[in-house]
Amino acid sequence: MQGDHPTLEAVAAHAGVSRATVSRVVNGTAGVRPELRERVRRSVAELGYVPNIAARSLVTRRTGAVAVVIAEPETRIFTDPFFARQLRGIGRELAAHDLQLLLMLLEQRADYDRIGRYLTGGHVDGTLMFSLHNDDPLPAIATASGLPTVFGGRPGWAGADRQPDLLYVDTDNRDGARQAVAHLRERGRTRVAVITGPLDQTSAQDRLDGYLDALGLREPDPALLAHGDFTAEGGARAMAELLDRSPAPDAVFAGNDLMATGALRTLRERGLRVPDDVAVVGYDDLEPAAWADPPLTTVRQDVERMGELMASLLLRRLGRAPDPEGRDAEPPAPVITPARLIVRGSA
Amino acid sequence: MQGDHPTLEAVAAHAGVSRATVSRVVNGTAGVRPELRERVRRSVAELGYVPNIAARSLVTRRTGAVAVVIAEPETRIFTDPFFARQLRGIGRELAAHDLQLLLMLLEQRADYDRIGRYLTGGHVDGTLMFSLHNDDPLPAIATASGLPTVFGGRPGWAGADRQPDLLYVDTDNRDGARQAVAHLRERGRTRVAVITGPLDQTSAQDRLDGYLDALGLREPDPALLAHGDFTAEGGARAMAELLDRSPAPDAVFAGNDLMATGALRTLRERGLRVPDDVAVVGYDDLEPAAWADPPLTTVRQDVERMGELMASLLLRRLGRAPDPEGRDAEPPAPVITPARLIVRGSA
DNA sequence: GGCATGGATGAGAGCGCTCTCATGCCGTGC
DNA sequence: GCACGGCATGAGAGCGCTCTCATCCATGCC
Asked: Transmembrane helix as a keyword (chains A, B) (predicted)?
């Protein structure tokens, strides 16, 4: 199998045409007589011809590959299937357009150099970036590389909002949080606390803002505010803090499910009943949320869809418009996907 | 930034040498006078030269990329951070050797064609494959492509054991299960049941075998055996089945943590105490295992390390021996990594 | 019927790199 | 002092493809 690899030349000889004609057929260029086209097709199939992408991209200057860059400060990717799902959506969309997915996982500072060089080297046609913190050097790298880039999650670095053609896909964190907290209020809760994520991430900040919206506040009540770090441990700690204040809250909105799970643990340890004594709402709708005791009321976002959208946004920017009618005259723009409250036992 | 991209030629002119010499320096080939070498280095840095990999791989016939193929029958990748962690290990090892990671996620039957064509097309130097079920067409594709391949998990398709140069990395599932069940017996449990995973996966079968080993049995006691499917729901169902038999088990070894979590849920619903009435042990040591109520006793495998090992096995097969002493005369062979019991509250 | 027109096809250059081979230079041995 | 071996360097071919441009042929028009 290996080692035969017929070339364009071979196919041309086999079909009795020129290299150029075979190239036209293979690339779907118009202007080849149907009968000839068919003959070439048969030769391609018969010889098992597969284009050599190296040769192709040497002349076209396109690589047919997209880099997906995930900066994962430590453990996040482990505990959270978020990236896996997003990757799935991305992979599906890219595959549908015959683009390859180059995965780059960043762990250390040194990795940033490597990736910068790689992107600048023109080895990919575009990038999808997950930049978790506002001080992440990734956006700068993207800009420096001059590559078309789409971000996962609204970028929050200074000046991001002023960049005109910034592309990203985010979920409506603010509205999701609003729904969650509104739900708690509808259930008659009057002292709704919040456990925030790291506020240098736009998702955490947006969720806090949604919480405030639902309560009609401009500033959080310090007695009802605790900071977590998006981990279960952090959630447990934050819940303990909240319970040590008086009067204690009768409901908690946690910035994500991991922290909500931690909060549940603390509540259990203190002998408090959920939702009777304290109602709990999480965010993300991770799988474990449904198994928690009690099952977690939470906010769901269509993560896989977000991945697809990121890819298709990039596709459009690359000019590989997935829109067959060619009517996407309007340039690609950021996309915000809706969030939906999932009511279960915990609130 | 985009668009300048100096070529070898440009660097050669700048350094006042020939293209060949620059190539030698860039690729670390011996036989260039140190002073010249240094001069070329400076030119490279000054011009910001980055080799064009398309051109390079056109002539070398190597691509510098490795495909990671994950066949994910439906939802597995969501609930289980397993792949994410393994990817991390793989990514680290590949990056250390300047290889790119091409991720291919398979969902549908049609994807297998695409991937087969891609691999056969010589677009990558090797593959890492995760083939979950024994009837998966992936191994055949790998063989047909003639590419160096390393599998994640011991392949279980018919005849796999007869293939002489089959390479894989697996954890010692059998021994892990043995430890788990031995632990239950040491704690005085006499009726230890088992909830198996899908037995067409070697991991599930091996864990069942380890269970039998620890009990000194050749065949499972049907009264103490229930089948799950590696999901929480399946585990809950299997636990219910087991409890409906009499006499009921006083301990359960679940084939993975997800099923163990499901079992915990059923036990809780039935008002049984864990571990007092029924002790539970899981397998995998997922993050949520530690938060479960009670925290799950389980078996840990170093998944990230397994990923690294897969990559380095492939590297050796590719001749990019990571062994600087060059003493790896012995050919690469399958690797089995140890498993370790983590004792927590549930048993 | 001759000529312009336009579409289908082929010829050929060249993308940036590696690698073989020829060349040139040095030091060594006789 | 000269031939020779060995090492450093350069010249040049060619990897497989795309794309421009020239060529060819059939058609339509005057």
From this structure: no
Instruction: Give yes or no for a contact between B8 and B23, defined as CB atoms under 8 angstroms apart.
Output: yes
What value does the mean pLDDT take over residues B7-14?
A: 93
pLDDT for the residue A333: 93
Residue B27 CB lies within 7 Å of the nucleic strand D:
no
pTM above 0.70, yes or no: yes
B290 or B223, which is more confident: B223
**Closest C-alpha among A258, A253, A256, A229 to residue A242:** A253
Beta carbons of A300 and A82 less than 8 angstroms apart: no
User: Is strand C less than 7 A from the beta carbon of B333?
Assistant: no
Mean pLDDT for the stretch of residues B25-30: 90
Q: Which amino acid is at A135?
A: D
Q: How far is the CA of B44 from the C1' of C24 (A)?
A: 26
Q: Which of B63, B24, B16, B11 is nearest to A56 (CA)?
A: B63
Residues of A in contact with B91 (CB under 8 A): 103-105
Give the dihedral of Cα atoms A291, A296, A297, A303; nearest 10 deg: -60
CA A25 → C1' C1, Å?
38
Q: Which of A53, A57, A77 sits opposite B84 (nearest CB)?
A: A77
pLDDT > 90 in chain A, percent: 68
Contacts 24+ apart (CB under 8 A), A314-322: A314/A66, A314/A126, A314/A127, A314/A128, A314/A148, A314/A149, A314/A150, A314/A167, A315/A93, A315/A97, A315/A99, A317/A126, A317/A148, A317/A150, A317/A167, A318/A125, A318/A126, A318/A148, A320/A97, A320/A99, A322/A96, A322/A97
Q: Which residues on chain A are in Cβ contact (under 8 Å) with B1?
A: 120, 144-146
pLDDT digits (tens, 9 = 90+) for B154-165: 988 877 778 888
pLDDT per residue as tens digits for the range B193-205: 999 999 998 999 9
Task: Note the pLDDT of residue B149.
Answer: 95
Query: What's the pLDDT band for A113 if we cut at 50, 70, 90?
Result: confident
* Domain annotation for chain A: domains and CATH numbers: 8-60 (1.10.260.40), 65-171+304-337 (3.40.50.2300), 173-302 (3.40.50.2300)
Residues in Cβ contact with B155 at an 8 Å cutoff, skipping those fewer than 6 apart: B131, B134, B139, B166, B168, B202
Other CB atoms within 10 A of residue A293 CB: 17
Q: Which two tokens stand for residue B187?
A: 């704690």
Alpha-carbon gap, residue A196 to A239, rounded angstroms: 11
Checking if the pLDDT of A77 tops 90, the result is no
CB-proximal positions of chain D, under 7 Å: 7-20
In B, minimum Cα distance to A90 occurs at B105
Query: Taking residues A104-128, what's their average pLDDT?
Result: 89
DSSP summary character for residue B222: G
DSSP states of B272-316 as a string? --TTTT-EEE-SB--HHHHHSSSPPBEEEE-HHHHHHHHHHHHHH
How would you label A173-192 residue by residue, b for 16+ Cβ within 10 Å and e otherwise? bbbbbbbbbbbbeeeebebb
In chain B, how many H helices and how many E strands?
A: 14, 12
Q: What's the whole-number mean pLDDT along residues A192-202?
A: 94
Q: Determine the pLDDT at residue A321.
A: 63
Q: Is the pLDDT of residue B303 over 80?
A: yes
- Chosen for mutation from A291, A302, A308, A318 (greatest number of chain B CBs closer than 10 Å) is A291
What local confidence, expressed as pLDDT, does residue A185 receive? 97
